[in-house]
Design brief:
There is one protein chain. By secondary structure, the chain is mostly beta strands. 2% of the residues lie in helices and 50% in strands. It contains two helices and 20 strands. It has helices spanning 11-17, 123-126, and strands at 51-65, 71-75, 78-82, 84-97, 105-118, 144-157, 160-167, 185-193, 199-210, 235-245, 248-257, 261-274, 278-291, 301-313, 316-326, 356-365, 374-387, 409-423, 433-443, 452-464.
């Protein structure tokens, strides 16, 4: 189960609310031309453009399992259980970034230190940690810890940048995830090229991930693997973002996860109309995943897609999203990444074998009523037809692939969520974001996410020192 920052809205909702004050969307064709200017020609200098700042985030979550579900923890050598888990962490990022040196080839460095201060240290509350609170082998919280979250060197020619070291990266397959007190990051080499007006290219090779709630670097593993020991240390990715019309944005990416799978992604967003009258946003996301190399995750042949339609009228947005998994295994992605852009990726990813799901979501932007920065939203999603009985991808090897998925026969689940957020518009706390969410998920007997309720309160404050 993935508790993502998209837990209250699908990707389509965020794109819709962003157009709340747009004029009628042009449908004009956009010709591909060379970029009008060179970013490197405008470089200010290594020291002259130096900046020092960051963010601090107060992250609180309280979960309750029901319908027999429990969390477990150990005390005095004995395993104890109860229905509740609470995590409360203050995460702070201090980022120092130079400017690019001037000249044909610009050079820049970026270093960010991540620090976590655990505010709830009760072993009973945190239940041994997980990807929320870092805990030692006895289940006790590590009261305070720090790590090097980012450390890279960047080289730029014209509008093309090569980055080497620990870094952020964002695409439909490999994407930094930031839904905890601290975000993840990746170690490797990547490039981003924006030499054309409406066409850009990205790619990279990564060998380690820096997890959200761990101090050390880790090899990559899948989100839905049966065993944490199934790992890979090479991920290659390449893709492009293309805007053929002013109203249409597309993205194409592929990735080779060594000895796991080859995965291909296509995404498109189209906008039509005037949101002051009525605007329609259509979103489509498609993934193709096939096994590769040693097939450490077993045999995989999976096609998964989502299609969303969103209507916006002034402050109000209403979205309908359908999602389908065509395959006898989960639609899977890399752990500690946000590489799932499907519309129904919520508290549950709605990604079970052969699963179909449907979501209805509503959002209101209170700026229309004189309160800029304040937003509310709500959604309801249902998944059905989960069937793993035909899965043979592990070829009878226990612990390989998705062993155990065969028990899912006609499983179903439903999820509800409401949320409120506010962004400070001015003053010394400008851009401070406060978000409260409540989510309830109910699953049938063998549905993988179970039945759980969660309240989350997150406050993020940016700051600048230099």
């Amino acid at each position: 189960m993935k508790l993502s920052s998209k837990a209250l809205l699908a990707l389509a909702i965020s794109s819709i609310t962003a157009t709340a004050y747009a004029e009628t969307q042009s449908q004009d064709f956009v010709p591909t031309t060379l970029a009008a200017s060179s970013a490197q020609s405008e470089a200010k200098g290594f020291v002259e453009d130096f900046s020092l700042g960051g963010t601090t985030r107060n992250w609180y979550s309280h979960e309750s399992k029901y319908r027999g579900g429990t969390f477990a923890y150990k005390k005095h050598g004995q395993t104890l259980t109860d229905r509740n888990r609470t995590n409360w962490v203050q995460g702070t990022i201090l980022n120092a970034s130079s400017g690019f040196t001037q000249g044909t080839v610009g050079v820049k460095t970026e270093v960010a230190v991540y620090n976590a201060l655990v505010l709830d240290r009760s072993k009973r509350d945190i239940k041994g940690g997980s990807n929320r609170t870092l805990a030692d082998s006895n289940g006790d919280a590590v009261d305070q810890w720090s790590k090097l979250g980012l450390a890279n060197v960047q080289f730029r020619v014209s509008n093309t940048t090569l980055t080497a070291g620990r870094q952020n990266f964002s695409s439909g397959i490999i994407d930094t995830i930031g839904n905890r007190a601290l975000p993840s990051s990746f170690q490797g080499v990547s490039f981003n090229s924006e030499e054309f007006s409406n066409l850009s290219f990205q790619g990279g090779v990564f060998d380690r991930v820096s997890p959200r709630s761990e101090q050390s670097l880790s090899k990559f593993r899948s989100e839905y693997t049966n065993s944490a020991k199934v790992e890979t240390d090479k991920v290659y990715t390449l893709g492009a973002n293309y805007q053929p019309f002013k109203s249409l944005k597309t993205s194409f990416f592929g990735a080779n996860v060594k000895d796991f799978w080859n995965q291909y992604y296509f995404g498109a967003t189209h906008e039509l109309g005037d949101s002051q009258e009525l605007a329609l946003t259509t979103g489509f996301n498609y993934y193709k995943t096939v096994d590769e190399g040693k097939k450490l995750m077993g045999d995989i042949d999976n096609d998964t897609y989502s299609l969303s339609f969103g209507l916006t009228h002034q402050a109000h947005s209403l979205t309908f999203a359908y999602q389908a998994v065509n395959g006898n295994e989960y639609f899977d992605y890399l752990h500690e990444t946000n590489g799932i852009y499907l519309a129904n990726s919520l508290t549950s990813d709605f990604n079970g074998p052969n699963e179909k799901s449907f979501q209805v979501a509503y959002a209101i932007n209170m700026a229309e009523y004189g309160v800029p920065g304040l937003k509310f939203n709500a959604y309801s999603a249902r998944g059905w037809g989960i069937d793993g009985t035909h899965y043979t991808g592990n070829r009878g090897v226990v612990g390989k692939g998705y062993d155990g998925i065969q028990s899912q026969d006609g499983e179903k689940h439903q999820e509800y969520g409401i949320g409120a957020s506010y962004a400070v518009q001015s003053g010394p706390l400008k851009a401070t974001a406060i978000r409260a969410t409540y989510v309830e998920h109910r699953g049938s007997e063998f549905q993988s996410d179970g039945s759980i309720k969660e309240f989350r309160l997150v406050t993020t404050i940016p700051f600048n020192i230099l």
